[in-house]
Amino acid sequence: MNDTIALANAKAKGKRPWFFDDREAERVFNVALALMQELSVARERIDTLERLLENKGLVSRTEIESFTPNSAEASARSQMHKELIGRCLRVLQQELEALEEAPGTAATPEELRHT
């Protein structure tokens, strides 16, 4: 596993707080929060870069909008997508890992789908 993905899946100490009675709602909520955090940071960085480039007269927003990546750039983007997915879905991955570490003490994946 890639080191970046491993870091994204690092577990916090202590028990995870639960906000909903329904485990499925809790999972969806946690994934949505992770996506919002990722999107917020990305949008701020994109805005900063576009403003700096445009203010310095280096690249216009039109050029940015019409950019097409080459194969190496597309491959790098694909890796970024995998890492993003790993970070956003880590709550689900950690639940499955907990089941594997302590069989019989937690709900099975099938039980988790139906709770």
Estimate what percentage of residues fall within beta strands: under 5%
Decide which structural class fits the backbone.
mainly alpha
Q: Summarize the biggest pleated sheet.
A: none
Mean pLDDT: 81
> What separation lies between the terminal Cα atoms?
30 Å
Q: What is the overall silhouette?
A: elongated
The SSE string, one letter per element, is HHHHHH
Helical content class: 55-70%
Uncertain runs are none
Number of helices: 6
DSSP E strands, number: 0
How many domains would you count in the coordinates? 1
**What's the alpha carbon Rg, rounded to whole Å?**
19 Å
Name the quaternary structure: single chain
Description of the structure:
With 115 residues, the chain is an all-alpha fold. It has one domain (23-113). It has six helices and no strands. The protein has helices at 3-8, 23-55, 61-65, 71-88, 90-101, 109-113. The two termini are 30 Å apart.
Topology of this protein?
Blueprint: H1 3-8, H2 23-55, H3 61-65, H4 71-88, H5 90-101, H6 109-113
Keywords:
mainly alpha, 115 residues, 0% strand, single chain
In short:
The protein is mostly helical and 115 residues long. Helices cover 69% and strands 0% of the residues.
